[in-house]
Amino acid sequence: MPESKGRPKPAFTPPPRAQKVKVGNPRWFVPLMCTLMIVGLLWTATYYITGEQYPLSQIGRWNLGVGFALMLAGFAMTTRWR
């Protein structure tokens, strides 16, 4: 009985190497996060210590909102910190 011819095998090519994924944050991320939280704390403390005259007396109790918004922005950044 005649034998069938074998199929030519393609040359082995190794799979492409996976590129390294950069893990981490930019260098400015952590200093900005800490700065936002500290500035928010100082803003709120200044408002209470000065008897509601500083930092901005025109906006009244909204100074608390500004201080807490700054602190929350810094805290929200901690969820992205790697």
From TrEMBL:
Is Translocase set as a keyword in this record? no
- Official protein name in the record: Cell division protein CrgA
Output the InterPro entries linked to this UniProt entry.
CrgA
Q: Which UniProt keywords apply?
A: Cell cycle, Cell division, Cell membrane, Membrane, Transmembrane, Transmembrane helix
Q: Which family does it belong to?
A: Belongs to the CrgA family.
Q: What transmembrane ranges does the database entry give?
A: 28-50, 62-81
GO biological-process terms attached to the record: cell division
Region feature Disordered, mapped onto this chain: 1-20
Protein's membrane topology: Multi-pass membrane protein
Q: Got a GO cellular component term for this one?
A: plasma membrane
Key word 4Fe-4S present in the record?
A: no
Query: Matching Pfam families, A to Z?
Result: CrgA
